[in-house]
Design goal:
alpha+beta, Hypothetical protein af1432, Beta Polymerase, domain 2, 6-stranded mixed beta sheet, 5-stranded mixed beta sheet, about 50% helix
């Protein structure tokens, strides 16, 4: 952890001259003097002149060898917010790029929102937008937050805790996502100390105590590793790795391990000159100590999402002591510690961005896609947080392209990682050449092939097993839009049906009448009104009455008679806003009635269902409906079969039903006595004719004594509570 020291502009300029030209250093000086003048008379909580903060932020960026424009933006990053100076003034003084960077950082500052969670979410959305324009914005912001964390002690305890929590939740994971390991560790250590001071001091004391006891074993292991490399003539340096307080605490908490279990593992890093030496060192250490099966990871061949590269292996050391070893090149070591900032190459005419830079940009563009599809800022941040804590797996397309996914990802997550359209039209998958369920969690190294079909759409059930933010937000976005269009279509049909009772159609209603009703109901447009009707939140009958307010009262009196003559046709393709009741399982051919349920749209019951008997004649709650002659789809129905106990009879029953082109959804058996059993079946059929054919086939089985359709189960309490919403 860095100790805070107050730097001067001269000492900073001396350091900068090692990698920046004289003109660039002078521009940084000029920005400093401009900031000093702008912040004159302003002081920090510590009592220091305010300009010490931008100077310290620039100093942090200089350690990362950032370019002169980033350093100038660091000097000026609070000028727009805290002084009367405008972006235009900065542009005139220092050019467009610096002004845009300063403006980008300024926009990341707090605004007032109704809740803290919303404030964080909105703040992060602004951060994503600023990052998309120029990645240096986030690096200046990270340096700004790092200096604030180093000087956190002067703040009040509640403010300290709030800033520490935000740092651990957002800034540390972003630093990790950009491969900036040193910054991430410092964020975590400072954040942990501020958020849980007692826990941090207890773990720190325990680590100091155990360090003395471990010295001898660490020294022995290190000596044996160095001797092994020397014997094999492999150049490299071996470093013992210290475990950080926050990582110890997180492992104890998440893996429910004791302090001693975590500290029993000894960790070392071996840094070498070239990639091929890494693999030779791996062979040498595996011959020195036995490797633990299943604990080897090759992040050199397949780097992590943030660009991290290394070989990881775990060995059984002397006396069975577990040893964790990371093997990497010196370049990979620099990359692991500093990530995107390790060798900053900002994209210009003669520069090619580094691998880390490209990955960072890809991630930011992914954020913008999430933002576009998220319903609100809280949903956006929920999806981002999933992606900010990655435990990756690596899977392949049939052509050998590698995709990084979160641990636990399924074929649906993989499909959305390829492209949103592939995810939306996904129907099945092959995992390592075998057909597999879409919900099966993927393992590293598998080859995944997605099977798509035109005209298909995401299934709401996918939300129960997808794990990536991209898949979740795209499914929600699609379903939300689909439900909206289906609700509008159903609302239009319901309203036209109700208006027919007044001798009208929506198209023939004067525009001023429509506008008057929109104003009365406090909705913004016709589509919103139709959606509300389709979802069951407003009664079509009541809206029709208002729209036809100019009609004579006599027209209204015979409404019921007219409405009954023109039933609403159910086509089976209405989607999520028309549901089929679980109590009576209506199928095409059954006489039916529609019950308007708030938020769900319309629920179809059989005409004789007990659960709608009380409201059957209420035009506000029930609608006259009929099956469309061209009705399509499969409908759930329940059967009760009494049969004689025989070996393999259930298999015979299932085969007979599938032979009649019906699909068995659920099957359960109940033993009536030693000789007979009752089988309850839930199956999908097309209509009553199809059901009759299935039942006829089942009756032909010799062991079957009786088969009946289960018509109406009494769930009156549930329905009444639903009806009570209206």
């Amino acid at each position: 952890m860095q100790v805070e020291t107050i730097e001067t502009i001269d000492s900073l300029a001396t350091g900068l001259s090692s990698y920046l030209g004289n003109d660039q250093v002078n521009n940084v000086r000029r920005a400093y003097y401009y900031a000093e003048q702008a912040h004159e008379g302003q002081f920090r909580r510590s009592g220091d002149a305010y300009v010490t903060h931008p100077l310290a932020v620039a100093s942090i960026l200089s350690e990362m060898h950032m370019d002169h424009q980033s350093l100038m933006a660091a000097m000026l990053h609070d000028v727009i917010e805290d002084t009367g100076i405008t972006k235009t003034a900065i542009k005139n003084q220092f050019g467009n790029t610096v002004a845009d960077l300063v403006d980008g950082v300024s926009k990341l500052n707090k605004m007032t929102f109704s809740s803290r969670a919303e404030a964080q979410a909105e703040n992060f959305q602004k951060m994503a937008m600023a990052m998309a324009k120029d990645l240096r914005v986030i690096l200046v912001k990270i340096a700004d937050r790092l200096h604030n964390m180093r000087t956190l002690n002067v703040l009040a305890p509640d403010k300290r805790r709030r800033i520490a929590r935000e740092t651990l939740d957002i800034y540390a994971p972003i630093a990790n996502r950009f491969g900036m390991n040193n910054v991430r560790i410092e964020f975590e250590e400072l954040g942990f100390g501020a958020l849980y001071p007692m826990r941090a001091s207890r773990i720190s004391a325990a680590v100091k105590q155990i360090r003395g006891n471990r010295k001898e074993i660490v020294s022995q292991i290190q000596t044996s590793l160095e001797a092994c490399l020397e014997r094999e003539s492999l150049p490299g340096r071996t470093i013992g790795r210290e475990k950080h307080l926050y990582s110890i605490y997180e492992k104890m908490r998440s893996k429910r391990k004791s302090f001693s279990e975590i500290m029993d593992v000894y960790a070392f890093r071996i840094c070498v000159d070239r990639v091929d030496t890494c693999y030779r060192v791996l062979g040498a250490v595996h011959s020195l100590y036995k490797p633990v099966p299943g604990r080897f990871k090759d992040y050199i061949a397949i780097p992590k999402a943030n660009g991290y590269q290394s070989l990881h292996t775990t060995l059984f050391g002397m006396h069975g002591v577990p040893i964790e070893i990371q093997i990497r090149t010196e370049e990979m070591e620099a990359m692991a510690n500093n990530g995107i900032s390790s060798h900053w190459l900002y994209k210009s005419s003669d520069d090619i961005p580094s691998n880390a830079h490209m990955r960072a940009r890809e991630w930011v563009h992914g954020l913008l896609e999430l933002q576009k599809h998220a319903g609100n800022s809280l949903e956006f941040i929920e999806n981002v947080k999933i992606d900010l804590f990655p435990d990756e797996i690596y899977v392949f397309t049939p052509k050998g392209t590698i995709f990084e996914l979160l641990a636990g990802s399924t074929a649906v997550d993989f499909a959305y990682a390829i492209h949103t359209d592939v995810g939306n039209s996904c129907v099945a998958c092959r995992i390592s050449r075998r057909l597999a369920p879409l919900s099966e969690p993927l393992q590293s190294g598998q080859t995944v092939e997605i099977i798509t079909a035109p005209g298909t759409q995401p299934n709401p059930a996918w939300l129960s097993f997808v794990v990536t933010g991209k898949a979740r937000s795209n499914i929600r976005h699609y379903l939300k839009n689909q439900k909206h269009s289906e609700s509008v279509a159903l609302g239009r049909r319901l309203l036209n049906k109700a208006l027919a009772g007044f001798g009208n159609q929506l198209e023939s209603i004067p525009q001023e009448n429509i506008q008057a009703v929109l104003k009365q109901t406090n909705v913004t447009g016709v589509d919103q009104l139709l959606e509300e009707i389709g979802l069951g939140n407003r009664m079509s009958y009541m809206i029709a009455q208002r729209l036809a307010a100019h009609a004579q009262s006599s027209s209204a009196e015979n409404t019921d008679g007219r409405e009954g003559q023109d039933s609403l046709a159910i086509r089976g393709s209405e989607g999520m806003v028309v549901n089929y009741a679980k109590c009576c399982h209506p199928i095409p051919g059954d006489p039916i009635v529609g019950h308007i349920s708030s938020g769900r749209g319309m629920v179809i019951h059989t005409d004789d269902c007990n659960n709608v008997a009380d409201i059957r004649d209420n035009p506000e709650k029930c609608v006259s409906v009929r099956w469309d002659p061209q009705v399509e789809g499969e409908f759930s129905v329940e059967l009760r079969v009494e049969l004689e106990n025989q070996r393999g009879i259930i298999a015979t029953l299932a085969t007979t039903i599938t032979g009649a082109e019906a699909n068995v959804e659920k099957i359960s058996t109940l033993e009536r006595d030693a000789r007979f059993s009752i089988v309850n079946l839930s199956l999908n059929v097309r209509n009553r004719v199809h059901l009759a054919r299935v039942m006829k086939r089942v009756r032909l089985i010799l062991a079957v004594s009786r088969i009946t359709r289960v018509k109406s189960r009494k769930v009156r309490k549930t329905i009444k509570s639903t009806i009570g919403i209206h």
